[in-house]
Amino acid sequence: MKDLADFHYPLTELFPQPKTDADWKQYRLSKDQIDFFHENGYVADVRLLDEKQIEALKKALDEVMDPAHPLHHLFHEFHSNESGDPNKVLFHSLGHWRIAEAFHDVIWNPAFRMAASQLLGDRPVRFWHDQLFCKPAHHGGNVAWHQDYSYWTRTVEMQHLTCWCGLDDATEENGCLQYVPGSHRWGLLEKPALAGEMDGLMAMMSDEQKAGFKPVPIPLKAGHAAFHHPLLVHGSFANDSGYSRKAFVLNVFADGTLSDSDEPLLAGVPVIPKGEKMKGKFFPLVFEGGLEN
């Protein structure tokens, strides 16, 4: 059994790699999509997975959710229920790319890599960390309104990006993402408890921000993704429906991002001293920029 973080290339044939510029171009976002991202702070309905890839990832998810998995110790975080309330279950973990080949290889999905580089200004892209967010049917918990970078200030400068991809269809009924368009221009707010009260962030907003707080739901078919800015306010409501809502998240940053802490950036990761470049085993370069060879 290996720590898959040692391998900075795909280990399976699940995500075929482009070989020519023409192969890469099929994955490029349009100018309209990129303009929408910069104006609103997100772009949604980007297809990342086919049915075979969805099924492989769902199988891997069922395996890594088991606390008895022999590589369980490689997780950076593992919360069977981050809310602590059995009536509002939110499974949340970080680090499963180290454990399951399918989740390792999805980081090298060319559709993801190309979009991430474009949205970061055609910059080279490094992996930051992954997450799983799973809400069971009938008693799935919420994710409170928050900004991702409020949890990531141990890295500078802010040149990060989040990709959320569903493994189930995400609907308003089962607790899909909700975005507040334009909130990426509000500046950095304080961080609430991620699985805490839905409106915990509201107390940290100005009157002007409260007036502009107009969330929009982002329903997505399984295998489709949304990308968002690190300051975009977002969250998701509880799942009281009869359908589960399983999703994974890939967080990245532009190459050249620095550590801003002398503490470990993630549990189990060696310290990168403050001011030094984020790189190495746990933060691999996943896209060099432009059209790769």
UniProtKB/TrEMBL annotation:
Q: Which SUPFAM superfamilies match?
A: Clavaminate synthase-like
Listed GO MF terms:
dioxygenase activity
Record's keyword annotation contains ATP-binding: no
Identify the keywords attached in UniProt to this record, alphabetized.
Dioxygenase, Oxidoreductase
Q: Does the keyword Oxidoreductase apply?
A: yes
Q: Which cofactor does it need?
A: Fe(2+)
A Pfam family hit: PhyH
InterPro entries for this protein: Phytyl_CoA_dOase-like (IPR008775)
PANTHER family, alphabetized: ECTOINE DIOXYGENASE (PTHR20883:SF48), PHYTANOYL-COA DIOXYGENASE DOMAIN CONTAINING 1 (PTHR20883)
Q: Which named protein is this?
A: Phytanoyl-CoA dioxygenase family protein
Species of origin: Algoriphagus oliviformis
